[in-house]
Amino acid sequence: MEELEHIDSAWKQKVRRNVLRWYESHGRDLPWRGADPYHIWVSEIMLQQTTVAAVKPYFDRFMRRFPNVQSLANAPEEDVLKLWEGLGYYSRARNLAKAARFVVDEYAGEFPRDVDALQKLPGVGKYTAGAIASFAFDLRAPIVEANTLRLYARLIGYAENARSTAGQRVLWRFAEDILPGRSSANGSGAGRLNQALMDLGATVCTPVDPACHACPAQRQCRAFADNSQSEIPQLPKRAQMTPMLHAAVVVEHAGKVLVRQYADNERWAGLWDFARVELGRDNNESPDDAAVVVRVGEMVRELTGVKVQVESCMRTIRHTVTRYKIRLIVFRGVAVDPDSANRDMLKWVDMAELSKLPLSMTGRKIADLLARPSPTRRLVAVHE
Ligand code: SF4
Questions:
Q1: 206 lines ligand 1 (CB under 6 A)
Q2: Residue 302 appears among annotated catalytic residues
Q3: DSSP letter assigned to residue 123
Q4: Averaged pLDDT score across all residues of the chain
Q5: Ligand 1 within 6 A of 200 CB?
Q6: What's the pLDDT tens digit per position in 247-267?
Q7: Which pLDDT does position 186 carry in this prediction?
Q8: Contact 335/252 with Cβ under 8 angstroms?
Q9: CA 122 distance to own-chain centroid
Q10: First CA to last CA across the chain, in angstroms?
Q11: Residue that wins the pLDDT comparison between 312 and 187
């Protein structure tokens, strides 16, 4: 591979030796470090799209409730979702539960020591399979995730698009080449080196202003030699965010509120939420706009079967989902015909029950608002 021609075994040996020496005193102390494939797997799934700091308390809670793969396999999905509440990307939690059942049923609760077999588990891709195989079993399995992608691209001076097919081919090939123990499947320290490289990428070779002065691989680094750290890696531009307007209505009746569980084909499948509807592209409509209020009432009726008098705007919540920038207007409303809410995915709950349900991220924010009520504004327009 032309892009790797300038790399010889002496160069690789120096990188390995220097990075491993650095790792002895600078490696991160993370609660999932060790050789337990269950801990490694759960942490890696949690870390997808999420920072280490955010994951730590979730990981601790998860391990207290589900200390091994058998306990996770036996748990109702709703319990798993409840522990995942607030982490986002909930398909990860559902896949985790599915994969646990698969490991118990097909492998008697022992994770397979094979990258291809690991990749067949729901939610486990090439990177996660490599992480489990190398960290837990010291198999010679390469890894490329955000931190190592950046580090490898800079080390070898790869200035093309790092996420293109060609870029991925070069970087995965490098990730394999840099591992020790080429002569055997057993990596002879492959897992430790992978962890060291990840930590170096995360803490020293950072996206902006990498700390090259503190880098153990500075002498071997192509980007440092060319002073091209800020241009590498080349990444495709992020898609433009589309502004969207959503509304959620806290529908009340007899001291209870109406909640709905998302169906399997919906974005937050399995989670519960207040009656939430999508109003389309956000054109800066005001929550006081009578037309908006009427439309929200109609859509909530269509969604739940309940006729609602939309009464006041409680709060606006802004959040992003994939490439959508969402403005969510939260209304309070009163059910005019509460008994119409007799569909499968709906129920009336009090505050105690609400606190036990796995809610969407914004659903939990709204529930917190209800627990600590703030003054609301009376609307001029009311849906009939
Ligand atoms: Fe990254 Fe700088 Fe180290 Fe090169 S020298 S690997 S750019 S931190």
A1: no
A2: no
A3: T
A4: 92
A5: no
A6: 999 999 999 999 999 999 999
A7: 57
A8: yes
A9: 15
A10: 69
A11: 312
What token pair was written down for 151? 């580090």
Tokens of 82: 């409840």
> Is the CB–ligand 1 distance for residue 153 below 6 Å?
no
Q: Using the atom order of ligand 1, give the atom closest to the CA of residue 232.
A: 7
| pLDDT tens profile 353-368 | 999 999 999 999 999 9
Question: Which of ligand 1's atoms lies nearest the C-alpha of 204?
Answer: 8
- Neighbouring C-alpha atoms within 13 Å toward the C-beta of 244: 17
Residue 218 alpha carbon to ligand 1 centre in Å? 6
Chain CA centroid to CA 50, Å: 5
Say if ligand 1 is within 6 A of residue 47 CB.
no
Select from 153, 96, 72, 383 the least CA-distant residue to 251.
383
Q: Are 135 and 112 in contact (CB under 8 A)?
A: no
Query: Average pLDDT in the 290-310 region?
Result: 94
Which is the catalytic residue, given 3, 44, 85, 145? 44
Q: Report the alpha-carbon distance of residue 140 to residue 181 in Å, rounded.
A: 7
Q: At what angle do helices 37-47 and 52-65 cross, to 10 degrees?
A: 140
Nearby residues of 29 by Cβ (< 8 Å), 6 or more positions away: none
Joined together, the tokens standing for residue 310 give 């939309």
DSSP output for 220-252: G-HHHHHT-GGG-SB-PPPPPPEEEEEEEEEEE
For residues 281 and 359, give the distance between their C-alpha atoms in angstroms, rounded to a whole number. 25
